[in-house]
Specification:
Elements (H helix, E strand, L loop, with lengths): L1 H18 L12 H10 L1 H13 L1 E5 L12 E3 L22 E5 L4 E5 L2 H4 L2
Helix pairs in contact: 2-3
């Protein structure tokens, strides 16, 4: 009987812990409590944030072809070879506007997709 009770308690704690797990990259912009609340109360927003972690930014060379001038919204002092998200870079996503940031000291840039494209 004690073993059964122990297994039930252990299963409960494992289930409760698992239910609270979030992508650790989200914790760069939100607290555990905020994420728990958002997941429960605003599941669409939570799903959007999960998708945005992988889709919102791209890092690549600055276009050099004629007619491809890029208007930068700022500069970021980052290592472009590392993994980044919009949260780790402190970038606020805009609804319908692309954003471009030059990577300091390189020929690289960070492009940020608008929310409207990430939602598709």
């Amino acid at each position: 009987m004690k073993k059964l009770l122990y297994l039930l308690v252990l299963t409960f704690f494992i289930s409760a812990t698992y239910a609270q797990d979030h992508d650790p990259r989200l914790l760069e912009g939100y607290t555990q409590t905020e994420l728990d609340k958002m997941k429960a109360d605003q599941p669409e927003q939570y799903s959007f944030l999960l998708a945005a972690l992988d889709k919102a930014i791209f890092i690549g060379p600055i276009p050099t072809q004629k007619g491809k001038d890029v208007k930068f919204d700022g500069e970021l002092d980052i290592d472009p070879s590392e993994d980044h998200t919009f949260l780790s870079l402190g970038i606020e996503l805009k609804e319908n506007t692309y954003q471009y940031f030059k990577v300091t000291g390189t020929d690289q840039m960070v492009g940020v997709l608008p929310k409207s494209l990430i939602k598709k």
